[in-house]
Amino acid sequence: MTQYPQKQHAHFQPPPPYQQPPKKKHTVRNVFLVLLALSFLGLGGCVAFVASAGDEIAKSVEESTARIEPQEVTVGKAFSIGKHQTLAGWTVTSQAEMFSVTGKVKNISDTTSTAFLHFKFLSKTGEVLGNVQCNSSDLEPGQTQVLNCVPDGRFSRAYVKVTAEATF
Questions:
Q1: For 126, which DSSP code?
Q2: Global confidence as pTM
Q3: Backbone angles phi, psi at 99, to 5 degrees
């Protein structure tokens, strides 16, 4: 067996051992995904805030409507409208042939508030015989004051119904 001399190539180098290609850094993609996630979280927070505010506004409107709607009251008996309670013992009298209301009002809320009440006196047929506007000064929570009332309409014992409502 004859061996042939092997030629050595001057430029030949054995291949390097296998190496994985360097991992790509997806910095731009990752930053974009983080910003996208934060945007969705922020949007969700804004939607929740707006929904909560909408619920509070609806609740406030309902409370305001409830205070404004006239309710039938009985002379002398306590009743509450809005933030105020008209105390038992209030009366309807004639003052220079006009309707007049005397009584006390109490602030039953947790905040300073002024009472504005409108009494309406109605006949059996629903005719308005007279109106009385009453108010108080600023009342701290729990404070009581005599109502300041201004009559409008001729006094008549013919009234059969009295309504009261808060006016602002």
A1: -
A2: 0.60
A3: -65, 140
